[in-house]
């Protein structure tokens, strides 16, 4: 679950193994679910809200998925992920320059991607342990 810049909650349900994950968008003030977006495939996991209005979702089987929060539509699904469809991504972070950091525990690397809409790979950093989650800090 993550809080968006629009003050809505984005809750990912990864579903059962081999099943189809979904995203629930919840209005915490109204205390109700506004919309459900199906089609995340299996392995959908942690999400992060990008300042561009996109919600990025880590997928343990499909790489990185993207939801346009303005149109509330899945724009980069399991058949067209941001990273290679076979990538195992277990965590995401965004830095102050809007770059995307994607944790790959299988390769023991962190993929650094340029901001959307293109997400060009900037570099890959090998880490000592196999990462599972991420956080970004703002440097004063």
Provide a descriptive summary of the structure in words.
With 140 residues, the chain is mainly β. The protein has one domain: YVTN repeat-like/Quinoprotein amine dehydrogenase (Methylamine Dehydrogenase, Chain H). The chain has strands at 2-3, 9-13, 22-27, 32-38, 44-50, 54-59, 63-68, 73-76, 91-94, 100-104, 109-113, 121-126. It has a 4-stranded antiparallel sheet, with no helix packed on it. Strands 5-6-7-8 form a 4-stranded antiparallel sheet, with no helix packed on it. A 4-stranded antiparallel sheet has the order 9-10-11-12, with no helix packed on it. A hairpin with a 5-residue loop joins β1 (2-3) and β2. It is globular, with a radius of gyration of 14 Å. The two termini are 27 Å apart.
Globally, the shape reads globular
CATH topology: Methylamine Dehydrogenase, Chain H
Structural class category:
mainly beta
Biggest sheet strand line-up: 1-2-3-4
The helix content is: under 10%
SSE diagram, text form:
Blueprint: E1 2-3, E2 9-13, E3 22-27, E4 32-38, E5 44-50, E6 54-59, E7 63-68, E8 73-76, E9 91-94, E10 100-104, E11 109-113, E12 121-126
Antiparallel strand pairs: 1-2, 2-3, 3-4, 5-6, 6-7, 7-8, 9-10, 10-11, 11-12
Structure summarized in a few sentences:
The chain has 140 residues and is mainly beta. It is 0% helix and 45% strand. Strands 1-2-3-4 form a 4-stranded antiparallel sheet, with no helix packed on it. Strands 5-6-7-8 form a 4-stranded antiparallel sheet, with no helix packed on it.
Key descriptive features of the protein:
140 residues; mainly beta; Methylamine Dehydrogenase, Chain H; 4-stranded antiparallel β-sheet; 12 strands
